[in-house]
Amino acid sequence: MAYADQEMSSSKIVSIFLVVIIHLLLGYALVTGLAYSAVKKVATQLDMIDIQEEEPPEEPEEPPPPPPEKPIEPPPVVSPPPIVAPVVAPRPVIRTVPTAPPPPRPVVAPPPPPPPPPPPQRATPEPRGNPGSWANANDYPSRALREEREGTTRFRLTVNADGRVSDCQITGSSGHADLDEAACKNLTRRARFRPSLDANGNATTGYYSNAVRWEIPK
């Protein structure tokens, strides 16, 4: 900085000195009566003198300050895992039994109930009472008795759901019409039956076949 101030002072002194010389020349010209051209020439020369002040040298840039030091972080401390003692299973307690208990009795399930019996079925009507009493010697036709006619009448009865005879058919004649007629007459009036039953146990119409043997009592 002192060197720069010295250079600036020298330049100022030179400039002042030149100005003084110019003023002396101008005074001299006025006094001596020099021509205007000489004055103009001097002025022109003065105009050509360009006094420039020297610029001070650029100061060197200061280096940037160093970055602040980062604190060194200590490494994380990892604690070791806790030491777990091994689990020791308790020993099983063995108990001695003098005699082994009897095995449990098997549970027997009761048998299933028997299925219900099927409904009663009756293919043919069943007679009620003694069929021999439906036609006997007391029913012998008087004319056939006098003529001592005998024979066997075979018949087929139609029995309705009420157990009564609804029809009588002669399937085998005794050879005498009056004996066959007496047989059907007495059978229709006296015969009673338990009617036939179908698959559902309901009473239904059935058929009954038999024979009447006509003999003259001794």
UniProtKB/TrEMBL annotation:
Interacts with outer membrane receptor proteins that carry out high-affinity binding and energy dependent uptake into the periplasmic space of specific substrates. It could act to transduce energy from the cytoplasmic membrane to specific energy-requiring processes in the outer membrane, resulting in the release into the periplasm of ligands bound by these outer membrane proteins. This is Protein TonB. InterPro entries: TonB (IPR003538), TonB-dependent_transducer (IPR051045), TonB/TolA_C (IPR006260), TonB_C (IPR037682). Its main location: membrane. It is a single-pass membrane protein. It comes from Parasphingorhabdus flavimaris. Residues 53-85, 98-151 are annotated as: Disordered. It is found in: Cell inner membrane. NCBIfam families: tonB_Cterm. The keyword Lipid metabolism does not apply.
